[in-house]
Write a structure and sequence with these properties.
By secondary structure, the protein is mainly α. The protein contains 4 helices and no strands. The radius of gyration is 29 Å and the shape is elongated. The longest helix has 21 residues.
């Protein structure tokens, strides 16, 4: 029984390997898709890094420009910090 399991699993592994190397998915083999994904995420080329940086800068600029001017700027100071600053200013007067 053990030898039969080994043969079946080996055949499945070989079949999967053959499919990954020769099968076509969207015009490329699955191995080529994995290689492209690996190059983009793990070790992107200098061109890809620059392109990603430019896309991020473009999105940030687009968000900044599309924001309406009626909206007040975001507060980055908490209410407690604001109260402490107001107390210090009041003491100096």
């Amino acid at each position: 029984m053990g030898a039969l399991k080994f043969i079946v699993w080996t055949a499945c592994a070989v079949g999967l390997g053959i499919f990954l190397a020769t099968g076509e998915v969207d015009g490329r083999t699955p191995m080529e898709h994995m290689e492209r994904a690996w190059k983009r995420t793990v070790k992107p080329s200098a061109v890809d890094r620059v392109k990603d940086g430019l896309e991020d800068a473009y999105e940030d600029a687009k968000d900044a420009v599309s924001r309406t001017t009626d909206a007040p700027p975001r507060e980055r100071i908490s209410a407690e910090d604001r109260a402490a600053v107001n107390r210090i200013i009041a003491q100096k007067k």
